[in-house]
């Protein structure tokens, strides 16, 4: 530590200021901020409270403390210049310098003189009083805290109470052995002789300041000094023989006790060496010293002679607090008898002690653990700090097993082998850690860290002093080594828990002292005390008084005797603690949950096994049955009221109703619908899927979640039921669900189905979970037709009826509309509730019973809110809090604000944390109490609040703001609220909601009432306020969220939406600079220029266009194309997603640009304008009129044709691989600007536009002309006509078959006529070859008797022209179709064909996997173009459109369900059309029967349809761009 005492404050450095701030106990985060602001001594002397609050966000209390202490520092410095400081608040310096040099006769240059001043504290401090070690007790269980103060030195009191004398000894302790022993013996023997002669007990202390020389120390202040060898001090008593007469030696040896070494703990940890106070007790028992007077020859080391000499014999006595020689020997001898008598009398009196009054420790224990309540809180976390347990105590830990223990700080290295960890682990799952594990790695958030260590899910067991059974390098160590190597880990660990993970008031720290206390455990108290900012939530339990005393003496260094004693339970046996606490725990016994089993019995689910399945909230058949009857009596009304106020239904609600403690929860009609669907899903049949989904779509607040939970509550005794916790990955949930299904079952193939409730998750998560479970079922080889898992999904939707119509086989809707039966139930229930509660306490139920009918409810809510807010104080902080919560609840689904955030905003401080909830609720206004509902996180138990219903939130927002404040102002105020933004606890949730408020778009697929381009709040602000306010709000969010590129992107979008293109360009540039490889941001920048270009085109439409006035618009279009091309590159390089918007946008801009160019007079005149335009775009020719104005764009414009072609070809290939129709009811990417709903139709249209533009002018509008001049057309013109007709790529050719156009055959014939008559010698390019063959295959489907149809064998020969390398995927696909063997082929021909097909498949799959990247299969489903039919040649291919025509499927969801379940393949019509092929399965892979030389693997489109064993199978074949796929795999009988 810097020596601040010798440096004027104005000369202090930043680090010296930080040191001073730590000494006055300022929080570390404030210290760091001041250090960052370079606050040195000069600045410290000139700052004020406002500066501190503004710069660091410091609370008023700390700011006031710093300024007050700073002023005291200045005042004390000024006084020090004129007179010595005799106060208790002194600057601590070295002591005892003169006395040591005098006693040992040190020369002025002695090296010992230079090594004085071992401890130096630099600032005024108020010292705490400290109790001394109990007289006569060994010091092993006692410690002192450095700078605490003992009572003053004392003389003879009552002979039994010891006299006390203090010696600093800090300098003498550094002397060599001979000098040190001489000094120590002199002080001990002199004091001892004085005490013995007075017949009084006494203790002399070394390492405690006497403060007689104005050295700056407080009298009695504990300093201590390092001791290398304790035996040097113990051996001092050997000098008794040389200092006392022979007759006295034995007596004196009995009176002077061996020295005690009391450890001195430094809370600030400024020294690496252990310091001690040495104490020597004097006990002159009358039976030993009776009738004697003792003299002593004191030793003195003479430097000149370099030896110890002895002074003349002297008789000493205690006079007051001093030891002085006896002057009147006669009188002193005469008083011997009297002193003997007094001593004898006092010894007798002292031997009789009355018993202590019995304290009610049981009640005290209950009060401390329950916070004054009658039951222990269910949502309170406990942190245990403990050491070694005895075997007897380990038998009495049931109370610990029933507690929600967050973590255990265990100082027993053998705990895992034979201690508490071992015993606790028999009942609970634990995560074993060391203190150093509690350091958040760089780049990891607190939430991610919690998941990483599985905090809140399983007890975290922290081994604080090594672990004996651990194979790694974590051995236990002694106290000194621990302080040097592990104390910093402890500090970081405790700080992280208290400052970032558990908010104050949500946890209780219990020091359970079961064996002698050592320093590391005491340091743990100090760290918790410091980081929890007080003792309110720390309690100590100790059966042993000795153990407690050591802990107490340390704790007294930080808090008062009363505080320590009031929060400690001492002398209570562990068995008594166990029995007492179990009485007030919510669960009366540590009973395991019970689960139903396949054979209709039950099994016990051990708690540790349940904790291993931490992603599931498992529902037992005996759920809630072990609830303490006292808890039911106390809480049942509150539980019911919370539900009807708008809280989520709990298992306790159902259990109370089931047992008759409360009214039944109403069953909506939807409940019975779900039950019926569930019955069908649970039946065994060959058609049954192993995993079924039942979706409950519900209006917000209509009781959908209640319906879902009612269903699984009432099925918990027949099936295994669980709720999926939303924060876990699909992998974890799938693994745990499988474990739950198979738990305690003999045969994994014979298990009860598991019903999994999945609430408010997106469709992607649900599909991924379903897929993972399918894989698991397949791996387990469970028999077909066995129902294994039912996913009961509960999702919000503003159109639940529409969702239900889409697939009535899977979906159920819950709406606000009540049936006549439901109305009757709700009316009856409402009558009862109105008698029981005031209307405002059951508002949500009333809204439900009124069916949320818009006009009635709007009027009711308006009236309710108006009445509620009638006398509200608009200026109060609580009202501001209501505004903030109302804003979030109005615009962000399921949003809330943590109670910890609210307390920070309300600036609440709690002197007694156990009354925290009462204090918080008491701080709320009456209005807030009525509109806020208190929530509790199921995982962390951290509390939060929201408004009882979104409709109420919306109305409160409207009425509270009125005309005085707009929503943008409130949002800006919320955004800039430093208290909420900087608050540590619940920060991730708060930041997520705040981001969502400003960023998250509405999505119907996510349960919103509409789709939006911006967040609903931003939409409201830009439409109902002004665009400028929306821009200001997002710009502030950009700064607030560390200049996040995504907010810059939003600002760019907002800018171009309101035609503020310069601003939009500015923000787009910023976003791209921050994330140059983000394809979505590059797309946004392209959209800025595209919109800008469109705006300029509209302006040009009003005037005559010239090369000069169009140059600016063309420049914009070129910039847009460049951005979209950069977007394309980034999208292709991104392995985790595929953003194809750049390709679509490139084509769109090119089309618009061609339209602009062709509209110029030079290119639009009737004589040769069109020809001139094409000549400019396709050759090196540049018309004179545009040469100069467009000089910067000629190269780009001449590449427009190639740019469009490449983009169209890429889109075509992508669409040929993957399904597009299945995305129409899914959410499109939130990051895309351009949404293409029907990409195949779009491709047809744009291909046609592309072809139409580049066709020679004379044929553009009169197709008959090109037919008559076919021989004169150039290949390029023919190709453009083919594009115009829809034959430009393989995707548009095959998608023509979906349209069922009656002229389709004629169109395809026209396309074919444009190709060379003898394609074998025409040297067509690969793309033309692909399109030519594809057109013939399409024509065979549209018009199988067409005269234009080439011979099938001719197409086979033509396909041989495809190159061996760099073969297009379309060419490979066609090879598979053309060379698929036929029944009449000879074996050799078949073998050759199979070889060709397998070679094509191998190449095709490489391209497929490049396209797939790392994207889940669910998001890029392979598209099947054709199926294998019963015919030959062309007729062996059946296009997918024919299958859909036969099956008469309508909606996308119905198609998907029928295809997926395999129902489609069982119809006779399908069997007539398609051909089943034979094969076999081997190790889960399907093989086609046919080729002899090598195996032919076929990808099974639905993995669960593959038999588990090695079976002979039949299946239908589909043809995709991945290769052939197997449908409807059936085992051959």
List keywords for this structure.
alpha/beta; 12% strand; elongated; 1533 residues; 69 helices
Described by strand count, sense and barrel closure, the largest sheet is: 7 strands, parallel
Mean pLDDT: 83
Number of distinct helices:
69
| General shape | elongated
| Distance from first to last alpha carbon | 87 Å
Gyration radius (Cα, Å) is 44 Å
Strand residue content: 5-15%
Structural class: alpha/beta
Strand order of the largest sheet: 14-15-13-12-16-17-18
Amount of helix = 40-55%
Which ranges are low-confidence, i.e. pLDDT below 50, for 5 or more consecutive residues? 81-125, 910-915, 1221-1230
Number of strands: 36
Q: What would you say this structure looks like, in words?
A:
This protein is an alpha/beta fold. Helix content is 47%, strand content 12%. It is built from 69 helices and 36 strands. A 7-stranded parallel β-sheet has the order 14-15-13-12-16-17-18, with helices on both faces. Strands 1, 2, 3, 4, 5 and 6 form a 6-stranded mixed β-sheet that branches. Strand 24, helix 33 and strand 25 (789-796) form a beta-alpha-beta unit. Helix 47 (1027-1040) packs antiparallel against helix 48 (1045-1057) and helix 51 (1107-1133) runs antiparallel to helix 52 (1141-1158). The protein is elongated and about 155 Å long. The two termini are 87 Å apart. The model is unreliable at 81-125, 910-915 and 1221-1230 (pLDDT under 50).
